[in-house]
Amino acid sequence: MPKLILASGSPYKAALLQRLMLPFSIEHPNVEEYAIKNEAPRQTAERLAVEKARCVAQNNNGSIVIGADQVADLDGHPINKPQSHTLAFKQLKQQSGNNVVFHSGLALVRYTSNGTLEQFSGVSSTKVTFRNLQDSTIESYLRAETPYDCAGSFKAEGLGISLFTNIESSDPTSLIGLPLIDLCTLLAKFNININQ
């Protein structure tokens, strides 16, 4: 089987990939995460996933590199990782009582020994409906889980699930940032079939 590399420093994505029971290594891509003017959040997620995968793949000929990125979308406006308590509080306040769509971009890239590029990518989107959140609820949640490195300021795999009234998705892992159903489909394009 070709070497598999996850182009991400995210412990959440690594934990998800471990579920597939495939050997993989991790390399941090040197890619700036930003949106281009007039770029829709869904497009940003896919573009960044491709850029991350290509960045690592260019120095690892023959390896299959997985790139992933997630962009939260509130009425067409991106919501980034807050990086601080103040911004996380503001984000959750904005999301309170609203629908937010989380776009998880996924890309698999391989450069062959002769320099040929093989690339597949796509986006899995999840719609989350937030409860009407009181300030005290937001403060309590942020103190409990400090989700400052997560788009949207919550951890759906943890206590963050209590902030929602509904989740609509074709893939329950997509909201955490690495859609495993899509990943299995794309891996099969490289003749890597799980459980076979």
Write a structural description.
- It is a single chain.
- With 196 residues, this protein is an alpha/beta fold.
- Helices cover 29% and strands 26% of the residues.
- The protein contains five helices and seven strands.
- Strands 1, 2, 3, 4, 5, 6 and 7 form a seven-stranded mixed β-sheet that branches.
- Helix 1 links the parallel strand 1 and strand 2.
- Helix 3 crosses helix 4.
- The radius of gyration is 17 Å and the shape is elongated.
- It starts with a strand and ends in an 8-residue tail after the last helix.
- The model has no long low-confidence stretch (mean pLDDT 94).
SSE layout and pairings?
Blueprint: E1 4-6, H1 11-18, E2 25-26, H2 41-57, E3 64-74, E4 77-79, H3 85-95, E5 99-111, E6 117-130, H4 135-145, E7 164-168, H5 180-188
Parallel strand pairs: 1-2, 1-3
Antiparallel strand pairs: 3-4, 3-5, 5-6, 6-7
Helix pairs in contact: 3-4
Task: Specify the helix fraction band.
Answer: 25-40%
Average pLDDT: 94
Low-pLDDT runs:
none
Summarize the helix and strand pattern as letters.
EHEHEEHEEHEH
Shape: elongated
Number of strands: 7
Strand content: 25-35%
Taking Cα atoms only, what radius of gyration do you get, to the nearest Å?
Answer: 17 Å
Number of helices: 5
Question: Structural class, from helix and strand content?
Answer: alpha/beta
Main sheet?
Answer: 7 strands, mixed
Terminal-residue CA separation: 12 Å
